[in-house]
Amino acid sequence: MYNEKDEKYLDCINNVAHVGHCHPDVVEAGAKQMELLNTNSRFLHDNLVLYAQRLQATLPEKLSVCYFVNSGSEANDLALRLAWQYTGHKDIITLENAYHGHVSSLIDISPYKFQQMACAEPSQHVHVALSPDIYRGKYCEDHPDPATAYAENVKDIIEQAHKKGRKIAAFIAESLQSCGGQVIPPVGYFQKVAQHVRNAGGIFIADEVQVGFGRVGTHFWGFQIQGEDFVPDIVTMGKPIGNGHPMSCVITTREVAESFMSSGMEYFNTFGGNPVSCAIGLAVLDVIEKEDLQGNALHIGGYLTRLLYDLKKRHLLVGDVRGRGLFIGLDLVRNRDKRTPATAEAQDVIYRLKEQRILLSADGPHRNVLKFKPPMCFSREDAELVVEKIDQILTDLEKTLGLQMSEAVISENGHTKRKEPSDENGLVHPSIGSSHKNTGTLPHDKKTKKRLKT
Amino acid sequence: MYNEKDEKYLDCINNVAHVGHCHPDVVEAGAKQMELLNTNSRFLHDNLVLYAQRLQATLPEKLSVCYFVNSGSEANDLALRLAWQYTGHKDIITLENAYHGHVSSLIDISPYKFQQMACAEPSQHVHVALSPDIYRGKYCEDHPDPATAYAENVKDIIEQAHKKGRKIAAFIAESLQSCGGQVIPPVGYFQKVAQHVRNAGGIFIADEVQVGFGRVGTHFWGFQIQGEDFVPDIVTMGKPIGNGHPMSCVITTREVAESFMSSGMEYFNTFGGNPVSCAIGLAVLDVIEKEDLQGNALHIGGYLTRLLYDLKKRHLLVGDVRGRGLFIGLDLVRNRDKRTPATAEAQDVIYRLKEQRILLSADGPHRNVLKFKPPMCFSREDAELVVEKIDQILTDLEKTLGLQMSEAVISENGHTKRKEPSDENGLVHPSIGSSHKNTGTLPHDKKTKKRLKT
């Protein structure tokens, strides 16, 4: 990525430019179709059918009906409409810190957004479940079965709702929570939640807007990490789907689609599924396949995670490293025991990286989680460069804060040290260090925040 | 427009391909920018600023803040959010037969859609006002002041809402109603409505998604027909804005935007205002200007309206001709006195035109209004061709139905005949014939409907 002065930036955050900024194959496909025909006058175009078939082939067979729309927000809103119509119920269960889009129906189910408002109460039909976060959540990595425990919370919510005479239409969650702080739900959680929700007559919506299309490395879709025995009722897609072109998709089962159709209300979307969008979507799928970008996400993601894990060994500010493929979070803390979010420090890292022409962002409820979700062509060298720079910045910051590793290193090697788990994909699972008590505060918090606002 | 066999079609309905299908300038601008950069990582791009300035220049000065989004639906949903935040009120007044988009918040305010459902009741916060339709509405062209009468209906609704303790956030209307049946509100209506709504603490949203960008000929925006003394608080744009590229815009006043900002909730839209969309938007504005497409809409629209008016003189099936620029409705009736909608006949016209490779559609609550909203490069020859074909089809249909003009012609020349008004733009204002009592029914209604469903 280059700025207006032709200066090169390393982009570690752009999950929209999925197959790489301005990928020539995608540009060519788009330009070619723009020249030929770009319309939607309710007439069918072959691209639409071809593209629906290709997308469907990446998913379990049950998910077989595609609706093409223009943004992740349009996709999630349509998912809600499908759920409402299919179940005849109204209530939605969403997760703490969830973000599902910017249209009004989605602000309602996005605590990440509505909690920014003065009046932060959810709407009557919205229930907020615990985030299945085993680092900062209620049930952590030391819990014997966090998947079941978090799913039980959903069950409780359903029971409470039923007592009030309310009925559950759907549970919605990102397959891996993005804005919520790069949270990876424990395996098995979705299955258990789905069971509770379906028992209540509701359906399961997997939001893949940020994490889909091979990013998690081992699978094409994030929800597939949960295991082959899990199939959502609706999957929504967005950002990476068109490498920046405004398009998105909702895929659901025949049953849900037929119920929607039987409502008598036709669904029409002016731009959705236009020939140019479909041509671009097809080209993106081709590039992912041709360049084995899912494989790259697996290998480079694994490598990057290991490098970040090494950082954790050297820096007290690093509380947790978690991720799958090229979707990784680095949770910065001021105190490893208390896991105090190092918000200002995270902002400082971002700002200093930007000065060195590396784009990274911080997110999560405390804005302290460094968020890696780069274009999928990210390389070993890119990973090394960004980690090297973060290393230097953390060293500087820790010097300023008076944080010293020696103590922690001792502790890491001592009784509280936990093993560094890694699975067959070379990915490192969440793990935490411990013991150092220093809660450093950056002396220039305010100044940093101000600078970053611009 | 060409089909897959390279057969040429005349497109009379595509207000999305506004400056012409695949206009080379627009394609070039899009392709060029796609090659350079297409991202939105919360970084600014010059195109965004340039485009906002250009759009703003087409509007009254007061409307000065642009939000770029991806579809008319996203635009209208954001308009509602702006209204809710600015006024602190919740209720929305919408028009009969209105259509404002497909996301859930807009289905709520779109009787055109929610009336298709079994449960056709509007939501509690939605109030449906009379459509200001002087051909089929409560106050017709024989009313001394339909603008005031229809606005009084809005005033009554506000008073009723206040009695229930409800508060009005906004009145929303298309500047000219499109799906609702090509309804042209009487001049002065918007001013009076705005006064009532603003007195109640609400704001006025003008939906220009279908009719904006010079289509009405005399003005760049449809609401401007109402006079220079009328300025909406929010204008929403869509379809034609990118000649098929998924993009749209909301423009509002500084006061409304500042109130939204002060809510503490950041507005972010992944694709909205990306450099490619803005490049395309700029190219569309350039083409409209360079090729004087607004002037073309005025002149060819006027010519087409006159040709259609001539049809009315010869065909009993034509109840009304109404329009502005290249936004014209031909209201087909089985009985001119009763104004019985000729729904099946309209569908038959559409179907037969399609057989002759002319694309036209029928809309309105009775689906009997032939809807002209062609690309703005529509020519005299195009106008002549479509009218000639409709002429033949109507002759055929009337023969089948046993409708004869002679009687009507006598009546047209008799005491009930109304003058054919035309303004300085060569446009013909709504006018009706009278007296013929024959209510013909097509013997093959069902068959026609079935064929057209495919």
Question: Can you describe what's shown?
Answer:
2 copies of one chain form a homodimer. By secondary structure, chain A is of the alpha/beta class. The first copy, chain A, has 2 domains: 24-290, Aspartate Aminotransferase, domain 2 (3-Layer(aba) Sandwich); 293-453, Aspartate Aminotransferase, domain 1. Chain A is 39% helix and 15% strand. Chain A has helices at residues 24-36, 46-56, 72-87, 104-107, 111-114, 146-163, 189-199, 254-261, 275-290, 293-314, 343-355, 380-401, 405-413, 445-453, and strands at 10-11, 63-69, 91-95, 126-129, 168-174, 203-207, 234-237, 248-253, 318-324, 327-335, 340-341, 358-359, 361-363, 369-372. A 7-stranded mixed beta sheet of chain A has the order 2-8-7-6-5-3-4, with helices on both faces. In chain A, strands 9, 10, 11, 13 and 14 form a 5-stranded antiparallel beta sheet that branches. In chain A, helix 2 (46-56) runs parallel beside helix 9, helix 6 packs parallel to helix 7 (189-199) and helix 11 (343-355) packs across helix 14.
Please provide a brief summary of the model:
Chain A is built from 14 helices and 14 strands. By secondary structure, chain A is α/β, with parallel strands linked by helices. In chain A, the strands form 3 sheets. In chain A, strands 2-8-7-6-5-3-4 form a 7-stranded mixed beta sheet, with helices on both faces. In chain A, strands 9, 10, 11, 13 and 14 form a 5-stranded antiparallel beta sheet that branches.
